[in-house]
């Protein structure tokens, strides 16, 4: 963060707080208060909020002020389709070609997730679970030397990332280790179609999280 400009720091900080649901849909955003919290001037904070508005994570309306935007379900589907298309291509480039070391690295990430999932006492547990999930999916991009593509893709998943926070609080999350294991097995021994089906089934799990979250907080979502 030290190498980033004040505007970029503000953007990343507010974006992270929105994704982790520390700032929830509909919450007001006061540029002066946020700037004071970060120890920066109001100008870069305003610029960061404008960037977040362009990314559809913040609503800026002259008459009602600035608020955290609702989770846009249509944009979420577009994001998820783009992710599936790119990740499937990358996975197929390493399918059937994993070295023993690479396979063990995959299995270690799965085991680390399983252990953390079972330990409810760990601080920042949900954040670390998300990091391990990303670590698993980033592995194929690393193997192919395309990790920059994964990082860019993740930065563009504005609405999908927000629902992942909900998934960690539902029974649906308990399927992650099994889903990751199935993807790995298809990487090792499956066909391209089988690998695609395993990935699609895993990535589409967010729909269950949406259903559960909407039943509790319908005001958090929009389909405009």
Automatic annotation (TrEMBL):
PROSITE patterns: HTH_GNTR. The keyword Transmembrane helix does not apply. It comes from the Bacteria. InterPro entries: GntR_C, TF_FadR/GntR_C, Tscrpt_reg_HTH_GntR, WH-like_DNA-bd_sf, WH_DNA-bd_sf. SMART domains: HTH_GNTR (SM00345). Residues 4-71 form the HTH gntR-type domain. Keywords: DNA-binding, Transcription, Transcription regulation. This is GntR family transcriptional regulator.
């Amino acid at each position: 963060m030290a190498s980033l400009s004040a505007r970029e720091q503000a953007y990343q900080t507010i974006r992270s707080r929105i994704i982790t649901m520390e700032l929830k849909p509909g919450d007001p955003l006061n540029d002066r208060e946020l700037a004071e919290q970060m120890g920066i001037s109001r100008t870069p904070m305003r610029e960061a909020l404008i960037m977040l508005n362009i990314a559809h994570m913040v609503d800026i309306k002259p008459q009602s002020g600035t608020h955290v935007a609702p989770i846009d379900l249509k944009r979420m589907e577009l994001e998820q389709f783009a992710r599936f298309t790119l990740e499937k291509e990358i996975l197929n480039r390493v399918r059937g070609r994993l070295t023993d070391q690479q396979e063990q690295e995959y299995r270690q990430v799965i085991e680390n997730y399983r252990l953390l999932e079972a330990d409810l006492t760990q601080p920042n547990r949900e954040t670390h679970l998300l990091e391990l999930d990303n670590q698993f999916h980033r592995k194929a991009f690393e193997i192919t030397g395309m990790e920059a593509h994964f990082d860019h893709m993740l930065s563009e998943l504005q609405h999908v990332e927000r629902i992942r926070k909900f998934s960690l609080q539902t029974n649906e999350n308990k399927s992650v280790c099994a889903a990751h294991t199935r993807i790995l097995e298809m990487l090792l021994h499956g066909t391209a179609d089988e690998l695609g089906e395993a990935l699609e089934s895993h990535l589409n799990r967010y729909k269950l999280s949406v259903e559960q979250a909407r039943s509790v907080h319908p005001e958090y979502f929009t389909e405009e």
